[in-house]
Amino acid sequence: MKILYINSLYSPLIKGGAELSLQLIVEGMKSLGHEVVVASLHPEPAPKVDELNGVKVYRVPLENAYWPYLDTQPSTLAKMAWHARDRKNLTMGKKIRQILKDEQPSVVSCHNLAGWSIAVWDEIYALGVPIIQVLHDFYLLCPNSNMNKAGIPCEDQCMSCQLLRYSHAKNSSKVSAVVGISQSILNRFTSAGYFSQASKQVIYNVRTAPEPQPPRVRKPREKLILGYLGTVSKVKGVAWLIDQFQKLSIPRTLKIAGKGDDATLEEFRALAKISPVEFVGYVKPNEFLKTIDILVVPSLWEEPLGMVAIEALANGIPVITSGKGGLSESVKHEKNGLICSPEQPNSLGEAIVRIYDYPSLYNRLSAAASFSVSHFLDKSRLISEYSQVIQETKSKKFTD
């Protein structure tokens, strides 16, 4: 069977977990004997076709106002123009039409469509090829892909999102199967009326983990080293964490690892000036995790999955988290971590103190951590589940 995968980027152009997971899926399906082809975008003016680990990769120029994967920020007007065209970019639809005609796939698996837009659905559907849509983020609901505005999570679509996504739910009826990387993200879309005709499945992403680590062991009154790892932003709950950390009287240190814009970092440094907080910048996750006792994931928005929590647990490190979105699907309260509520701000500080006061609780959580996420670390499970969805989707198309 020939499978065409469509994503905004493909290795070595990597911006996040979607690209890492997609490469695992593509190469895994190839190992099962399927013919796999990838269509992705690149910033160069001319198209090219290359091969990566035996996989044919189309790299297509983006027809829009600018290349969005740069550190520099375009003007508000330029962003508006970019998103308006990206609502349904017919020029990009024509580009995928040619690839479809050249490759004639049996099924198409769409992942992040930023830049491509849902114009690709029209072209695939017109040729009678079944579509599988994998949900890694909120792009199909929100042009910014993150369902937050100015650091405040959005409970529903704002007016601009409604305008730029007004036809997306209706168009999603062309999709034969939809896969969420968590039950949370799948529910968010189906409750908004998306994918009414599609079969539905949750398939958790995987991460490569180290060899199982021995459980961490804490002793009474030992200094507690807390860590945060990820984008340093308001919607990630970093201000909440710093505020709660400052109110604690226990021996403790907080290490904040990751990148953020200069203004936000300046604000957080000012907020943390009376506390033992270290801003360590970009780090390799596995190296950083070796230096902390517990990871705090205080996200205020609905994380699609929250892979950073899974990485920590795989390293035997308990997690304190808000449990927003997919985080509650890996972190289980009092099993491998603690869940607190942003609606009860002091609950975060109370959870930290509880870990400090009760070493036996920490030791129990650490002992359970690695095994509790073994499902998320199983590459063969990921490939098997995607293979089953593809087979069922193709079979359903023939029997409809």
TrEMBL record:
InterPro entries: Glyco_trans_1, Glyco_trans_4-like_N. SUPFAM superfamilies: UDP-Glycosyltransferase/glycogen phosphorylase (SSF53756). Residues 215-369 form the Glycosyl transferase family domain. Pfam families: Glyco_trans_4_4 (PF13579), Glycos_transf_1 (PF00534). Gene3D superfamilies: Glycogen Phosphorylase B. PANTHER family: GLYCOSYLTRANSFERASE. This is Glycosyltransferase family 4 protein. It comes from Algoriphagus jejuensis.
